[in-house]
Amino acid sequence: MLIPVINRSHHPLPAYQTAHAAGMDVRANLTEPVTLKPLQRALIPTGLYMEIPVGYEVQVRPRSGLAYKHGIGIVNSPGTIDADYRGELKVLLVNLSAEDFIVQDGERIAQLVVARHETAEWQPVAELTETERGTGGYGSTGSR
Q1: Is 82 annotated as a binding residue?
Q2: Sheet with 56-61, edge to edge strand ranges
């Protein structure tokens, strides 16, 4: 699949780091480092603009290494980039650790997963079909 992209950063395009990876690492495009204090969040620019095909989205997900080593996550994880968005891709990072974290220019800050999706319509009905689970909610499966 080819996705048209404008790269206004001085970094390489997002890329898969291994042959069977689902996500491509995306880099921060900064003129100066950004310090995230504990529980602080910030929109980090990437310099990327893309034209996602209709019927697809690009999911923005945390990088496991940043999460494990530094407590850095993404507030709206996974974030969704819709096919009709043409603005700059920015990543909403959050520092969930007790230490300051400095985001450097060119640092791999998130991963992007291209995913197909369906467009649904709601069908109002008076009742739903019965299932074994029924209305059992949080933690209800396997508890009998």
Answers
A1: yes
A2: 15-16, 24-27, 108-116, 56-61, 79-81
Spans in the chain with pLDDT lower than 50: none
pLDDT of residue 133: 85
Q: Is 143 annotated as a binding residue?
A: no
Say if CB 61 and CB 109 are below 8 A apart: no
Domain ranges of the chain: 5-116
Residue 76 marked ligand-binding: yes
Q: Is 81 annotated as a binding residue?
A: yes
Instruction: Name residue, tokens 């209709």.
Output: 54
Whole-model pTM over 0.70: yes
106 annotated as a binding-site residue: no
- CATH number for the segment(s) 5-116: 2.70.40.10
Q: Per-residue b/e over 102-116, b at no fewer than 16 CB within 10 Å?
A: ebeeebbbbbbebee
